[in-house]
Amino acid sequence: MAYDFTTKRLYVESALGEKAEVPLSPEQTNYLLNVLRLTDGAEILLFNGREGEWRAAIEKTGKKKAKLVVGAKTREQTPPYDLLYLFAPLKQARLDYMAQKAVEMGAGRLQPVITQFTQVRHLKLERLKANAIEAAEQCGVLSLPAIDEPKPLAEAIEALEGERTLIFCDERHQGEPLSALSRLGGARLALLIGPEGGFSEAERAALLGREATVPISLGPRILRADTAAVAALALVQAAAGDWRSRD
Hints:
Blueprint lengths: L8 E3 L9 E3 L2 H10 L7 E5 L5 E10 L2 E11 L7 E5 L4 H13 L2 E8 L10 H15 L6 E2 L3 E2 H8 L4 E5 L7 H6 L6 E5 L7 H9 L3 E4 L8 H15 L8
Parallel strand pairs: 1-3, 6-7, 6-11, 7-8, 7-9, 10-11, 10-12
Antiparallel strand pairs: 2-5, 3-4, 4-5
Helix pairs in contact: 2-3, 2-7
């Protein structure tokens, strides 16, 4: 089915199906009626990350209350993306940006990792989820990423076991990244973005000592961690992910 780029989308927790009625929270009602200024009978698109995307109509039930009446399905549910995205948390505004861009660019799981030079060690996972939902609503994503509790870097890497090839951005690495990534074929991938201060000597040695690890360079410029995340995700998706040609 063709994707509708113009109709507003809303994530809901409720089950979806034809003629189902979806209650709206006060915040959702305010967003639809006052922020977007939608009127009674206006249509939006709904998704819950499980049952695809559906068209629904707004039905006002009171002065400041409304519900949604579900109509036809517009898209079937897509499977979750397989790319695992590991990252050292940043200060809040830049972390918001990083989380949104990771979702937009196909991360299927978000794993915060605590490194020696990590700036932020206490995360609000609900805020991460809210940013993931916002990005999914705006960009047509149907499968929300899983969001894991923060783990120490060593523990997170150990949890990968042998099932994934780990790509990490190494500021000391030389060489052109696309050729290295293109050789990964159909491997299951994990991408690691470190903190602003980079990895410690011990962390870097541990990463390079792991058999299924691919260090890549992001070029001659020094990038902030949130910028590096976007650059690395673009490289991975273009060379080894779902952007590359399957011909």
